[in-house]
Design goal:
heterodimer; A: MetI-like fold; 17 helices; 1% strand; B: mainly alpha; MetI-like fold; 3 domains; 3 strands; 5% strand; extended
Chain lengths: 461, 434
């Protein structure tokens, strides 16, 4: 008996209600009564009546019992642990959780055993409660729906109403996601800015996050932590710039060639080939950058007497540039194709060469769209994570030299939040502040790009 | 323009001016064409370079070196309790039985040489014997020849990455080991064949026995969760926004919202998972269910946008026909619009799923980076996924992991190619021209 069997049971009950509803409707029909709706709508109506409330209560209990228990269980944690400076709720909960699952090594402290036993008991009780609530709802409300069935009943209209509201509800998920993102980032960021002033975060020139534990422990790191994000943004900017230097010329020239010069066959071969570049996972690019491109650049650099860091901005930016070529080429290709043929014909009619039509007519006409594609590529480059984590390194150097190792906002977010975190520490919270600035920047870029595209569209329609 | 604009040109003069410039202009045109060719050539050569570099490393990663030994499977030593239970075999002495049969071939003298000889065979050899015995207990008490994976350093040596010429102090394996390996290959006991581990093994710190099975199953589970959540939600949202939503502020906000979500960097979804699903709802880390939920939220905008386009592409005449014979709006949508829009929606969904399959960053943040040896049996068992496995292996120092990582990448790419090809075929096959 567990959550899954309960779920299957609920589904079975609603299936049963469907059967009964359907059968009743059919029997009414067999009595030569004229039904308002098709018989199966009566079945669906009862089934929906049964499944929706019961599923709701099932999920509600499933989600909230964990939250409730994890707070209640703190009663069982001894005072000296609760009050000790390195008390961490997550670790304590994990300890109990592991004991519940029966994974532990060596002797458990007494309180863990007691707490885990209590937890098991609570879990069982909550399952029984869930079982009772959901099943009775499924049967009870299902019965209410069943009783509604009579000849005049407009079951189709009711079913459609329910389904339309379900459709509407699902469109709210997108809003909820945004709200979730905003809340998860803003609250933690506010707490971060309570510890570190926003001016230091925005204008500070050194980034050196330290765990508070390391600061306390007298490791010689006390007071060295600093949260100036300028080096990260400079690194992000540098890598994005390198990426654009690679992708903009290649992407634009490809787009121009494919849309103006290439014949149908060339187009059908090369367009998908370029788009493959966008489909390759970023982790693969990261691996390629770290193990193939970076050593190549290092060796190439030492041949001509340059000292290239083994994790250079150049390698990461170059590979990122390859990755965003298709974003620029596809979007630019679309806008170039959207330039009306009449403009081209007018140019050719004046005796222009293709080159002249492209540079004097098509590019100016398509420029807003091309700029939008570049902006979208920038926002893509700024948000890109795996390539920089794997190839650009984590050294927060404030440097504009592409041969140096730099780090980026996304790389720092990942390194800070992967693995064990100390909640409430400035280091962990700083990742949320970084994420906030990242979201704000990409949203501004995105808005601006959409704005440009909109303005452009109005010109020809 | 010309300076002497004021003066009318005769036709002859004008054609002279044009003729004198036409070669230059044609050259310019040819130049632009060449630039375009060069750009495409560069992009395609990057692509080829990427594939060649991955495949040249990855294909050898599917193979590895094995050593064949004649092992006497001593019943008492392998199975001390005599009940053939896994515990009894685990307590047995398989490791030294393997080593003894190795010693018989290479005759190490003294402790130092024996220590060197121990390095040749993978530490997993005893597990292999236990497994064989568990599968077929009749082999106990017999002498049979079994192939074992060689240790990763030996493998790298046999592949030529560790060179004989390097001075012994800088090599990871010493001269004695090399002498033994030479002896084994002289007796034809070393073989190079398709790896038993890469596709069926799970995560391991020893590269010679590491495999992608666990990560692969984790990926499939995560993707299944992602699909189950994202597809219905995406289609439902698209139907609602296209067909039912009133044109008001709220609808507008939802639409802007979806476009923005599509632009949010993927790490941010990891933060969402960390703060809301783990932090507020108390879900356990590292489970495919959580990974699937986070990826579902991430792919939702892609699915919604492509589904809306597909619904919009269904011609109004179809709807009018349905309305004309008395169908309700919902019936029209479910019986006519959705089936006709389905290929387009599925194409968008497959592309979204392909994105989700290759996504790494958000999964790192919700703890799917943990080192998990067990193969996940369900969506609530801790697991990892292929891209994260690739990321982890790429960080390991052992030479052999580079090949294994590339092999894992090949598996991932093959899957992505299949998914994208499916999307293309689906689109071609079911596409209708109205």
């Amino acid at each position: 008996m567990n959550e899954y069997t309960l779920l299957i049971l609920l589904l079975l009950i609603s299936l049963l209600w469907f059967y009964f509803g359907n059968k009743t409707a059919l029997s009414l029909k067999n009595k030569q009564l004229k039904l308002n709706s098709l018989p199966h709508y009566y079945g669906i109506y009862v089934a929906l009546y049964s499944i929706i409330p019961s599923l709701f209560s099932y999920l509600l209990i499933l989600v909230f019992d964990g939250i409730l228990f994890s707070n209640l269980i703190m009663e069982f944690v001894p005072k000296e642990i609760l009050n000790s400076p390195d008390f961490n709720k997550i670790i304590v909960l994990a300890q109990i959780d592991n004991a519940v699952r029966g994974i532990y090594f060596g002797e458990q402290p007494d309180w863990v055993t007691i707490a885990s036993n209590q937890m098991i008991e609570w879990n069982n009780q909550s399952l029984i409660l869930n079982f009772f609530c959901s099943i009775s709802l499924a049967l009870g409300i299902g019965y209410l729906g069943f009783k509604n069935i009579h000849q005049e009943f407009r079951s189709r209209n009711s079913v459609e109403k329910i389904i339309i509201s379900l459709l509407g509800l699902s469109s709210i998920i997108a809003i909820l996601t945004t709200i979730g993102i905003v809340f998860s980032v803003i609250f933690e960021s506010l707490r971060f800015f309570a510890i570190i002033p926003a001016s230091e975060f925005l204008f500070g020139l050194t980034w050196n996050p330290q765990f508070e534990g390391a600061e306390r422990a007298g490791s010689g790191q006390e007071g060295l932590a600093s949260y100036g994000s300028v080096p990260l943004f400079v690194g992000t900017f540098l890598i994005s710039l390198i990426a654009l230097c690679v992708s903009v010329p290649i992407g634009l020239f490809s787009a121009v060639y494919l849309s103006e010069y290439a014949n149908k066959k060339e187009r059908s071969i090369f367009k998908p080939l370029l788009e493959i570049l966008a489909g390759i996972p970023t982790v693969v690019y990261g691996f390629f950058a770290a193990l193939t491109v970076a050593p190549l650049m290092r060796n190439g650099g030492s041949l001509i007497g340059l000292d290239v860091a083994s994790e250079s901005a150049l390698a990461a930016g170059f590979v990122m540039g390859i990755m965003i070529i298709p974003f620029i080429s596809s979007l630019s290709d679309d806008v170039i194709n959207a330039v009306p043929q009449s403009l081209r014909d007018a140019g050719y009619g004046l005796g222009s060469t293709k080159n002249e039509v492209i540079t004097n007519v098509i590019i100016p006409a398509a420029l807003p769209g091309i700029i939008a594609s570049i902006i979208l590529a920038v926002s893509r480059a700024i948000g890109e994570t795996m390539i920089v984590v794997m190839a650009a390194g984590l050294a927060a150097n404030l440097s504009f030299n592409p041969l140096d190792a730099v780090t980026t906002v996304t790389a720092q977010i990942v390194t800070i939040l992967v693995g064990d975190q100390e909640f409430e520490s400035a280091k962990t919270l700083s990742a949320f502040a970084l994420a906030l600035t990242l979201i704000v920047i990409t949203l501004i870029l995105n808005f601006y790009a959409l704005h440009v595209v909109k303005k452009y569209r109005e010109q020809y329609e | 323009m010309n300076k002497n604009n004021s003066k009318m040109l005769t036709a002859d003069e004008a054609s002279k001016i044009v003729a004198s410039s036409v070669i230059r202009r044609r050259k310019k045109d040819a130049r632009l064409k060449t630039y375009g060719r060069i750009a495409i050539g560069l992009a395609v050569s990057f692509l080829i370079f990427l594939f060649v570099s991955i495949f040249s490393k990855g294909i050898p990663g599917f193979f590895q070196y094995y050593v064949t030994l004649d092992v006497y499977l001593d019943r008492d030593r392998l199975d001390p309790k005599g009940d053939l239970s896994p515990e009894s075999l685990y307590n047995g002495d398989a490791r030294s039985i393997v080593l003894e049969s190795l010693y018989k071939v290479i005759n190490p003298k003294g402790r130092k040489e024996k220590k060197a000889a121990k390095k040749i065979i993978s530490s997993n050899a005893d597990v292999r014997i236990s497994k064989m015995v568990l599968d077929n207990s009749k082999i106990l008490g017999k002498t049979i020849s079994i192939t074992f994976a060689v240790d990763d350093d030996i493998d790298s040596f046999l592949r030529g990455y560790i060179k004989r010429e390097t001075p012994s102090s800088e090599r990871r394996i010493n001269d004695t080991v090399i002498k033994f390996v030479d002896k084994l290959s002289a007796e034809n006991r070393i073989s190079y064949k398709f790896s038993d581990y890469i596709l069926t093994g799970s995560a391991s710190r020893s590269p010679e026995i590491a495999g992608i099975k666990g990560a692969f199953i984790g990926s499939m589970l995560t993707l299944a969760v992602c699909f189950i959540i994202a597809f219905p939600l995406g289609v439902a949202t698209a139907v609602y926004l296209e067909e039912f939503a009133p044109k008001n502020r709220i609808t507008e906000i939802i639409e802007v919202n979806i476009n923005n979500l599509a632009a949010v960097p993927s790490v941010v979804f990891g933060i969402l998972g960390l703060a809301i699903f783990i932090g507020v709802f108390g879900m356990p880390r590292s489970i495919p269910l959580l990974g699937g939920m986070v990826l579902a939220l991430m792919t939702l905008p892609t699915i919604i946008i492509s589904s809306r386009a597909a619904i919009r592409a269904v011609p109004p005449s179809i709807k009018d026909a349905a309305y004309g014979i008395g169908a309700s709006k919902l019936q029209t949508i479910f019986h006519h619009v959705l089936p006709l829009a389905m290929p387009g929606m599925l194409t968008g969904t497959i592309i979204g799923m392909a994105q989700a399959l290759g996504e790494t960053a958000p999964l790192l943040m919700i703890g799917m980076v943990a080192f998990i040896v067990d193969i996940p049996g369900g969506v609530t068992d801790p697991g990892t996924v292929l891209p994260v496995q690739i990321f982890m292996w790429a960080d390991f120092a052992e030479r052999m992991f580079i090949q294994k990582t590339s092999s894992a990448i090949i598996v991932l790419l093959v899957f992505l190619i299949f998914m994208n090809a499916a999307a293309v075929i689906l689109r071609k096959k079911l596409e209708r021209r109205w």
